[in-house]
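Collaborator request, handled under Task 6.
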Amino acid sequence: MTGHVAQYFLDNVAWRDVCHHAGRALRPSGRIAFEIRNNLAQAWRSWQFTEPRPVHGGTLWQEVFLHGDLVTHVDHWDIDGQTHVTSETLRFPCWADVQDGPAAAGLQPIETWGDWDGKAVTDVSPEWIVVSGAAMGDSG
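Structure tokens returned to the collaborator:
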């Protein structure tokens, strides 16, 4: 799962469900890998800007709203004289909730990194990269 897709599952039930279905699709010794932004790094703080910024054909400004571990950014686009508003909600779960999805699906942790440089997961890691797989002898 790339592109922070794991952040689109907005609660623990949905996260466990997708991990369960992904785990069922694994071949023996198959792996599931995903990356998710570290909630403690609070990347969303840099997403908000209220002064319009130039984009191709117009301008953009963003608002960011935090509700629990959900972050919604609302984008206001003024392109070629037309205004468009888009929004997206992402989940920034804690490390325990991130690990719970694969574990609830019976997947075993194989590797974790705190970023694409392969460093250990810490409270200040910008990303959490997780690789999990079926238990040895499990056919998936």
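The cover message to the collaborator said: "The chain has a mean pLDDT of 92. The CA atoms of residues 33 and 74 lie 29 Å apart. Please let us know whether this matches your experimental observations."
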